[in-house]
Amino acid sequence: MPRDDVEAYNELCCYTLSLGDPAFIHQHVVDAFAAQHADEHTKPIGLTFALVGLYLHLEKQFSGKEVQRAHMTLGKRKQRWPELDLPRDRGSMTAADVMAATPGVERDRAIDAWCASVWQEFHPNREAIAGLLRERGII
């Protein structure tokens, strides 16, 4: 993982955590970064939760707080997580691209665009994620 991207992610986390916004957009940053940087060593729960967050945010318009609640519901019981494919490409945007946007509305929109670029690459996993959420009564 490029050092610059990790530094940009850390700066972006500071930005989103300092907002104190009730929607808690920080969750979307965590999910986009986790999915974008997942590899064969990533625990299945980590990738699943990241993709659940992206799916719920982008396709069901969940806020970060609502995504957190979904994560808590999923984590209440031990289960086997779905087998997910790791695409070669992980999105055209990175945390560094988001940090290049002007703080405020522009940067917040860039977070959404970053999430969308990552989710687009993971889209072949959509049915596995949606099925899990249906099974658990979240959607």
- Give the domain tally: 1
Termini distance? 34 Å
Approximate strand percentage: under 5%
Poorly predicted residue ranges: none
Total E-strand runs: 0
Number of helices: 7
Order of secondary-structure elements: HHHHHHH
Mean pLDDT: 95
Structural class: mainly alpha
Give the overall shape. globular
Largest sheet: none
Task: Please explain how this structure is put together.
The protein is an all-alpha fold. It is 65% helix and 0% strand. It is globular and about 40 Å long.
Short synopsis of the structure:
By secondary structure, this protein is an all-alpha fold. It contains 7 helices and no strands.
Give the SSE layout:
Elements: H1 3-19, H2 26-36, H3 44-60, H4 64-75, H5 95-100, H6 105-122, H7 126-135
Helix pairs in contact: 1-2, 2-3, 2-6, 3-4, 3-6, 3-7
Looking at this protein, list some descriptive labels.
139 residues, 7 helices, 65% helix, mainly alpha, single chain
